[in-house]
Every structure is written in C-alpha cells, then in structure tokens.
Fold this sequence. Notes:
alpha/beta, TIM Barrel, 12 helices, binds 2-phosphoglycolic acid
Amino acid sequence: MRKKIVAGNWKMNNDLNESISLINEIKEVLVEREDVKAIIAPTFVSLDRASQLLKGTNIGLSAQNMCYEDSGAFTGAISAKMLKSVGCEYVILGHSERRTLFGESNSDVNKKMKKAISEILTPIFCIGETLEERENGEMKTVIEKQVREGLEGISEAELTGTIVAYEPVWAIGTGKVATPDQAQEVHAFIRNLLKEMYSEELAENTTIQYGGSVKPENAAELNGRPDIDGALVGGACLKADSFVAIIKNA
Ligand code: PGA
C-alpha cells in the first residue's frame, strides 16, 4: 500500500537560525503517524544542521533543487552527491517556480531525475498546468508531456519509490486551491498514465501528492479522495502548527 506523504517546501524562507527554530518547534508539536510520512525541504544552507536536528525522528529531509552534473565549473550549482553528504534523502525536482522563473525544461528535469535516482536520492517529481493551459483545454496534454518527457528512459525499477506531486500552477501561493474533484480527476489521470507507461503495480504504489494552497482546513477533504496521497505544502508549512495540522488532517 502506498503511503501518504506531507512535504513542506520552505522555498527561499528562513535563514539558519530561523530554520533551527522552526525544526525544533515542529519536533515539539508533531505526533508522528505510521500512515503519514513528514518531510521538510529547507534551503541548501540549512540542510546540514537540519539533518543533525532530525536525527532520531522519522521526519525526512529534502532539498528543493539540484544540478544534474556531478562536479566542475557550474557556479552556484549543488550536486546530488553534495546533498547526500549532508544527509538529504529526497529532492524536489521540476517545481513550477524552477520551470517558470528559472527556465527549466522537461529535458532538464529528466536529467535531474536520472541523476537523483542514480545517487539514491528520492525525487519529488513536480508537474502541473498553468491557468491558461487549463482554460485552453490543454491540461491533460501538458501533464502527459511533463510526465513522459520527465520520465523518459527511466525504468520501472528505477522509478519505484519516486514521489509525484501534482501542483496546478494557478493554485500555488494564490490561495486558490483546486477543488477535491478537480484534483482527483488529474491524480487519477496521472496514475492511469503511469499504469500505461509502466504497470498497474507501479501506478498503485506511487504516492501522488497534491500541492497548491494546501492548508489545515482543506487537507482532510483533499486527502479523502482515492488518488490523493498527501500534500506538498508551501506557505502553510512555515508555521509549525499549521504544518503539523496538515499532517494530522491528511
Ligand atoms: P503553496 O505552495 O502551498 O504556498 O501554494 C505549494 C508549492 O509550491 O509547493
């Protein structure tokens, strides 16, 4: 059975001291659940300390991005090996902010996916359509292209364990959450696509998170749908209480 996973994407928030405080607060209020895994994704500069603070807990540690190269003249870039060396187990790849603000293509995301998998980092593979694409009736075409191109050349064995995050771009940071029906429709579409590309077993075992304005108030209803397996949370993960309430309500 697949697990529900709630991941907090801190984005470019919290310096080192603020990160330490937030992690300590989360540890204080979080009641860990067997059936829901919690992950936090602080910025690069806080990862090392975060992994020390998370020792002895079941909270997973994720980076927000990485480079697909191993090392060399790539100013400002961070490799998968470097992430592993500070205790990271997960990495968010293809987030819509990386795609829209930093020009990442499906092929860039594909290279990162392959590198992360080869270094035994679990990807949180993000996909989602813009409002314009949805209104033009292109939602499924866009999602299918992101999935097929993002996963090109990755075998079933390699993909096993990868987390998928469906994040409609129009719902990220806007307060406009997808309705449970809207989200369920796309989640079922993605799961079906995975079945077509790989197998029923892989599709059924893959965690597909919903992301985009998830809050304690809407987490339960979204997670009541059969194909929604947790959440990728931005704004609401920056306060320990609301992050923990989302985990509780998932
Ligand atoms: P949000 O961000 O919860 O602030 O909408 C979600 C995300 O970008 O992962």
